[in-house]
Design brief:
single chain, alpha/beta, six-stranded parallel β-sheet, three-stranded parallel β-sheet, globular
C-alpha cells in the first residue's frame, strides 16, 4: 500500500442468494451488473470472491467480469469450513482451481472463507495450492453483537500470520488482508450499510479515518428478496454511491486484493 493515501479494499462475495425457503437461486449473480455499474463510474477494480458453482454455471459472466476485476475464490460450495474435513477442503480447492484455470487460464491468487470462518489448517492448504493471500480474518467486531466469523482481535492492516495462531503476525508466506471495520468494530459491509444508511457512515468517518478499511458486499444486497436481512435492498445502489463519493472525497484509494498483495510484495 502506498503510504501517501488511505486505502480501501473493495470486494463482493459472489455466491448463491440468501433465502429463507431453502431453494438455491443465483438472482444476485445474474444481476451483479447493478453493482459493477457503480464501480465503473468510480473506476474501481474490485475483487470478486466467487464460488465454484458460480464459475461452473456462469463462465461467460465470470470471463466478462475478469476484464476489469480480480476473480478470487470463495470456496467451491458455499459451506463453512468448520463443516468440512481436511480431505473435503482439499477436494474443493482442487475442483475450484481446475474450473478456474479452465475458464480464465491461470491460477487464483486470493481466497475468502464462507462466513469468515478460517483457521491455520486452511491457510496452510492455501499455501500448498499456491494462493498468495487470504481475506477472511475479521480483526475487530461490535462488542454487543456476536458473529460466528469473529474469534478475537487481530492486526487491522495486511500481515503475514503466525503458523500456529493466525490472529498474530508471523512467518507464513501467505498474506492476510483483514476485513477491517471502520470504527468501534462496525463493518463497512453491505448488510450493515442497508441497515444504517450512508449518513451513519459519514458520521463515523468524521470521527476516524483508518489507514486501511475493507468495503465488502454481496450481489443480493442490490436486489429485492424476502429474507431476514432484506431491508433497503431497493436503496442499496444509492447508499453505495454516497459512501463511495464520501470515501473518495476524503482521499481513500480503492484497490482490490491482488493490488494490495503485489504492492506489499514489491514494497511500493
Amino acid at each position: 500500500m502506498r503510504k501517501m493515501s488511505k486505502t480501501c479494499m473493495v470486494s463482493i462475495d459472489v455466491e448463491e442468494d440468501l433465502r429463507n425457503d431453502g431453494k438455491k437461486t443465483f438472482k444476485g449473480v445474474e444481476n451483479l451488473e447493478n453493482i459493477l455499474r457503480i464501480f465503473r463510474k468510480h473506476d474501481i477494480e474490485a475483487t470478486l470472491f466467487v464460488t465454484g458453482e458460480v464459475l461452473e454455471n456462469y463462465p461467460d459472466l465470470v470471463g466478462r467480469w475478469s476484464k476489469k476485476h480480480e476473480i478470487a475464490s470463495h470456496g467451491y460450495y458455499h459451506i463453512p469450513l468448520c463443516r468440512l474435513s481436511v480431505s473435503e477442503r482439499k477436494r474443493q480447492l482442487e475442483d475450484f482451481c481446475r474450473v478456474y484455470n479452465d475458464i480464465l487460464g491461470r491460477k487464483p491468487k486470493g481466497f475468502r472463507a464462507v462466513q469468515h470462518i478460517i483457521d491455520n489448517t486452511q491457510l496452510k492448504l492455501l499455501e500448498e495450492f499456491g494462493f498468495e493471500y487470504d481475506s477472511s480474518v475479521i480483526p475487530r467486531y461490535v462488542p454487543i453483537k456476536k458473529y460466528v466469523g469473529y474469534v478475537g482481535k487481530a492486526p487491522t492492516e495486511p500481515y503475514h500470520p503466525d503458523y500456529h495462531r493466525l490472529q498474530e503476525k508471523g512467518n507464513m508466506k501467505i498474506l492476510e488482508i483483514p476485513v477491517t471495520p471502520l470504527v468501534f468494530g462496525i463493518p463497512l459491509y453491505g448488510t450493515w450499510i442497508r441497515m444504517f444508511g450512508p449518513r451513519f457512515y459519514k458520521f463515523l468517518l468524521i470521527m476516524k479515518k483508518p489507514k486501511f478499511i475493507n468495503l465488502a458486499m454481496h450481489p443480493w444486497d442490490c436486489i429485492s428478496y424476502n429474507g431476514r436481512y432484506s431491508r433497503n435492498t431497493e436503496k442499496f445502489s444509492g447508499f453505495l454511491e454516497c459512501i463511495l463519493d464520501n470515501l473518495n472525497r476524503i482521499n481513500y484509494k480503492f484497490v482490490n486484493g491482488e493490488t494490495i498483495n503485489e504492492e506489499l510484495k514489491h514494497g511500493t
